[in-house]
Amino acid sequence: MKKLFALVVLALALMSLSHAQWNFAGYFPDSTFAKKGTGVHGIAVDPAGKVWVQWWGRTDSLPDPGAGGQYYGVLTIHVFNPDGTPASFSPLRVLQGPGVNDTLWTAPAARAVSNRGLRRDHTGNILISIFDRLYRVNYQTGVVMNKVVAGDNASITAVAVDTLGEIAVQTVAPGNPIRIYAPNFTYLGNVTDTSRGFCRSTVFSKEGNDFFSANYTLHCVYRYHSDYGTFGPYVVGPNDTLMKGFDCESIEWNPTRTRLWASAGSANDRPNRYPGVTTNYSLNTWYAWNPTNWTIVDSIQWRWYNTDTMNTRPRAIAFSPDGNTAYVGCFGSGTYPSLEKFTRTTSVLPDPNVIPSEFTLSQNYPNPFNPSTEIKFTLTKAGFASLKVFNGLGQVVATLVNENLNAGGYTVHFSAPELSSGTYIYRLSVNGQTISKKMMLLK
To answer: Which residue has the higher pLDDT, 393 or 244?
Structure first.
């Protein structure tokens, strides 16, 4: 009976995936990138939309002045503009800033390091995990702002960061403390003194009350909860073993922190192995979880370049600031492009019966809405049209139109299952003209 109930629950959850809106938009920045070395291990997207990418291991070499100019392997961190062109300070093989001048050597063994994860912090700067070190790098300049040795002479994961800027650092191997740092990298205390299972990626809830540890060897995600945030203490309760059946190697929030995305597993670390629980999650698929009820509401599946499934392991996911573009990366043999781009579609439908006499933006209907509504507008001249939705803080939560349109009438379908209840502004801009209106989402 329990098994039947589990199958019914899973079937209902997977039925909701029929509403997934993600389309494969190609390899980023092209099909030749990351087709060497060991594939992608970290992705982060900064407030300007630049895409930061780590390969796990050596991808280049530099001469070492201390060894008579002998060449040694180094790590590389690439930074791309949204159009795929390199940022002005990319690539990074040496991390520099006040008191820091670290070449990312991968040899000799005494100082060899590997890339371990990327995360955007509360101000948009990039947190870089490299072996047992954590760096904060200015997203506008590529200059190091902070550095701390955060591991126990052991590799650390992609770190967790809350909206207050507090950071939690776990080691990949179990049995070590999960340490908490202030935004200035001052040590504050521990989530726990002894971590569980092997882990590659962690996240915090918005204000740090929940710490999520993706344990790919224990086939689940653990939630450590504290009623007082990072003041602690954190505990794992009887209902805090989540995503049972996941061999998760990458986990990340969407920009509004209303969906927690996690990879289910790979051919190397297969999903659906949690003891006593029947699940049917797919290989190399990231699922979006609604944190209010822990149901699956969306998914993105890796697009197979070839049949090299054993060496294709989903290690990274990150989103554009408006949440409409997803970048996913796989660790592997380096025989395939290991960074893919997906875009979330919105329907911009022309209305052939409308002959526009003025530039208009209609009130959405229905309003209030839950979770979908339609927005109509008319253009008297062709031009580049932008229709965006903003929250009460002025942040873009959705880009519905961002393209050249001819004169005419249009209808846009807007679905907001990820957003919380509240008042939002939608703004249409074309040829220097702008119209804004309010709409209300009630759940």
So the answer is: 244
Cα 213 off chain centre by: 15
CA dist 353 and 72 (Å) reads: 67
Task: Count the residues in the chain.
Answer: 443
Cα R_g (the chain), whole angstroms = 23
Q: Could you write out the three-class secondary structure of 317-363? A: EEECCCCCEEEEEEECCCCCCCEEEEEECCCEEEECCCCCCCCEECC
State the distance between the two ends of the chain, measured CA to CA, in whole angstroms.
33
d(CA 419, CA 421): 7
Q: Which of 7-21, 33-47, 256-270, 397-411 has the lowest mean pLDDT?
A: 7-21
Reading phi first (left if > 0) and then psi (alpha if -120 to 50, else beta), residue 145 is in alpha
Strand-pair partners of 286? 263, 300
d(CA 168, CA 182): 9
Nearest to residue 318, comparing CAs of 32, 33, 127? 127
**Angle at CA of residue 38, ends 34 and 41, nearest 5°:** 80
CB atoms within 10 A of CB 235: 12
* DSSP secondary structure letter of residue 277: -
Mean pLDDT across the chain, nearest whole number? 89
Buried b (16+ CB within 10 A) or exposed e, 41-57: bbbbbbeeebbbbbbbb
| Beta bridge pairs of residue 241 | 222
For 114, residues 6+ apart whose C-beta sits below 8 A from its C-beta are: 41, 56, 57, 75, 106, 130, 131, 155
Q: Residue 205 — pLDDT band, cuts 50, 70, 90?
A: very high
Report residue 373: phi and psi, to 5°. Answer: -155, 170
H-helix or E-strand spanning residue 7: helix 2-15
Element (H, E) at 128: strand 126-130
The mean-pLDDT minimum among 190-204, 212-226, 302-316 falls in 302-316
